[in-house]
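Practice record 12: protein with heme C.
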Amino acid sequence: MFFETRISVDGNVSCSHCHLPERQGSDGLPKSFGVFGKANPRNAPTIFNAAYQFKAHWRGDRETIEEQAEKSPTGPATFGNPDFPAVIVKLKSIPGYTELFGRAFPGKADPMTQKNWGEAIGAFERTLPQRTRFDAYLKGDTKALSPAEQAGLQKFIDIGCANCHSGVGLGGGSFAKFGIVSDYWKETGVADPDKGRADVTKNDADLYVFKVPSLRNVVATGPYFHDGSVADLTRAVRVMGKTQLGLDLSDKDAAAITTFLGALTQSVPINYSAPTPFPDTPRE
Ligand code: HEC
Ligand code: HEC
């Protein structure tokens, strides 16, 4: 279903339309485009390690990846369906899915539900996290990181990046204001700053607050930030130094950190590609 375009209103959009295998589960665009080329308000993060995170989306407006998957098909700038029953009608019209849902959720009179769609996609997404050289290093293989990468890691910890980008995902476990020391839009140059979580909670304390993103795969998933406003990773590292820590990072330090971030890249999971069609259903 992750690779299924036939449930979108224009027949062209699947989850993988914006979370592409060849882009490490992201799309390489500042902001994504859904059905009929409609622009999404934010940048598409990679989903490879979304399962680790405490909430989904930049503003944390989805509790789990399952809830994310349940709601995506009715997004106006994703799949464009008016409601979920319209999605079920499409799914039921495609031979194969009724049987697959029956097998995946046995003993249910009507297993093809919005909740089970979310469960099934979430189950797939939970297979995607892979080990990286950094994980080998953490397990004690000190040679898994080059001396330059280790120096970058040390810098990353010493100056305070790891205070926010912490835990198994190096981020993905908390919210923080983008622009603790200085306004983010002055550094990134955006004209219409996104208010972040404040638009979700209607609470001024959440103004410009976003989820601290996981830095896994970050070298491969630019452009950066919720609005895709910065294309270059070293530049993004400098923006972080300035806005979050009040530091003007030297070229050497910014480069060292960027080098370390390269060790957080995983290989594309082998099951992250469109499956062959069901034997009895040629794809249009
Ligand atoms: C039109 C492009 C598009 C399509 C189609 C799309 N996504 Fe996304 N996805 C995005 C964007 C943009 C975001 C960030 C949204 C936000 O934070 O407001 C996102 C966020 C996510 C996240 C949260 C990642 C994180 O780090 O917080 C997950 C998980 C995800 N999508 C899975 C899916 C699944 C599953 C589907 C199919 C049911 C799907 N996406 C379809 C563009 C898309
Ligand atoms: C106070 C918390 C905090 C600190 C400290 C912090 N960050 Fe961040 N970081 C964030 C938040 C929040 C975002 C999301 C900003 C946005 O786009 O809305 C982010 C985004 C990023 C991104 C962009 C990721 C992407 O996928 O677009 C990178 C790279 C990054 N941080 C690296 C660093 C580095 C390197 C440091 C240290 C110099 C650092 N961060 C320090 C909170 C923090």
